[in-house]
Amino acid sequence: MAWWQKIFHHQQKPPAGENGDQLVTSLVTTILHHHRLLGEVLLQLPRVYDSVASGATGLAWQGNQLVLKINPRELAKLRTDDAQILLEHEALHVFWRHPLRYAAYPHQGLVQLATDVAVNQYLPAAPAGTVTLGQLERLLHQRLPEKQDSQDYLAVLEGLSPEEQDRLHRAGIKLNGDRKGKKAAPGKNTLTADTHDGWYHHGNSVAVNQQVRIGKIRQLLQKAWSQTPQRDRGLLPGEIRQQLNMHPTKASTPLWQIVLRRQLGSVVNGKQESRARFNRRQPLRMDLPGQVSHLVPDLQIFVDNSGSVPDKELAWALDAINGMVKQFHLSATVYTFDAHVNFPGQKLRPGVKVKRERHGGGGTSFQSIFDFLRHQRISKRAVVVIITDGWGEATLRDHHYQNVYWLLTTERGQLSVSARASHVFELKEKSDNG
User: Fold this and answer.
1) pLDDT tens for residues 311-366?
2) In angstroms, rounded to a whole number, what is the distance separating the alpha carbons of residues 333 and 378?
3) Cα 240–113–233 angle (5° rounding)?
4) 10 Å Cβ neighbour count for 354?
5) What is the three-state SS of the chain?
6) Please, which residues bridge with residue 194 across strands?
């Protein structure tokens, strides 16, 4: 079906709310002429009209189906060019699967800021109420890299100092929004152009089938791409073509390796005061403490024994970690786990082949890892790496072990743990800037 036939098909529907469907169809028609792929995505999204929605537009989950929710009255108040940019903004969120990746993330205020900063860099202007990279840089008084994945910006926001958080708060940006994702400025509940209210799913909501959601979004994007003529594909930014896996990309260092390497480097290079050492500059001053190298705990690596981690990917990941271990003169131990951690573990060495033997029965238990760490009296500063498909229990007690890196063989959004995790990455990341 050609795009003009799809538009005609939409126009046969009775208008919803104040001619809402006719308005959206008109806007999508214009977008199709200027940004064909964005328009095709918008054509594929089912539309839901809600005159009391908290934003003019927003993506939302209805069960396992992603829909475009529209407040027709609020959308009609916008200038035509502003309304078009707003719809393009929503299409870009779909490109990078933001509602899927962050559906279970408990701090939706952070998610809204990070994802908006990411997608707004591909628009000529930012929709009202959303933040741009330049605005964020001015508020933080620092430069940030351009056109990075939203996860990168999210990592920056998670590491803000109290002073920086207060600066954003005074600017009307609510970093620790509630679990529904609301981010209105304190003391005033105003409508915004774009809302993320429908992204988050609660643990007690209707059953969510992550595989179905993934399949539906992938099918939507593939269909939008197939409907986009070759001449229009060539006009797309390289990051979008790479995201759709339609162009080969250059090999690059995965984000998890960059972040983990930075963490290990900072642990090793740290110093701490000690009364057990003389002060080197003034050795006769017994009241002055000396310094010793910051204690470096062993790196603890846990590999899901469910068989979902391919041997080739596991060997690749362990080799990368082993390179960091050698660089920073650390030691690392690899354990397998399912319902419990298999002890003792194996020391990580070049070319090591981790034993993948099933011990006992039962499913995957992430809680067993944190219980094991506490029982073995592993330092709270320990760097913990968990390689898994992400499918386990929904809640756990971390016993204050915060320095945890989750490397998923699936997509980021599939980590079952609803509690906030320190770092969540895809083991074999694709080029998914956004």
Assistant:
1) 777 888 888 888 888 777 788 999 999 888 988 899 887 666 676 665 555 578 89
2) 12
3) 10
4) 20
5) CCHHHHHHHHHCCCCCCCCHHHHHHHHHHHHHHHCHHHHHHHHHCCEEECCCCCEEEEEEEECCEEEEEECHHHHHCCCHHHHHHHHHHHHHHHHCCHHHHCCCCCCHHHHHHHHHHHHHCCCCCCCCCCCCHHHHHHHHCCCCCCCCCHHHHHHHHHCCCHHHHHHHHHCCCCCCCCCCCCCCCCCCCCCEEEEEEECCCCCCCCCCCHHHHHHHHHHHHHHHHHCCCHHHHCCCCHHHHHHCCCCCCCCCCCHHHHHHHHHHHHHHHCEEEECCCCCCCCCCCCCCCEEEECCCCCEEEEEECCCCCCHHHHHHHHHHHHHHHHHCCCCEEEEEECCCECCCCEECCCCCCCCCCCCCCCCCCCHHHHHHHHHCCCCCCCCEEEEECCCCCCCCCCCCCCCEEEEECCCHHHCCCCCCCCEEEECCCCCCCC
6) 57
Same domain, yes or no: 221 and 276? no
Q: Are residues 235 and 315 in the same domain?
A: no
pLDDT digits (tens, 9 = 90+) for 247-280: 434 445 677 887 787 677 655 444 555 555 555 6
434 found inside a domain: no
Cα gap 215→211, rounded to integer Å: 6
What six digits make up the tokens of 128?
């009202």
Cβ pair 100, 413 in contact under 8 A: yes
CATH number of domain containing 389: 3.40.50
Count the domains in the chain: 2
Query: What residue numbers bound the domain in which 273 lies?
Result: 255-426
pLDDT higher than threshold 60 for residue 189: no
Output the pTM of the full model: 0.56
- Residues 391, 314 within the same domain: yes
In a domain, 432, yes or no: no
Reading the block at residue 1, the tokens are: 């079906």
| 77 and 148 both lie in a single domain | yes
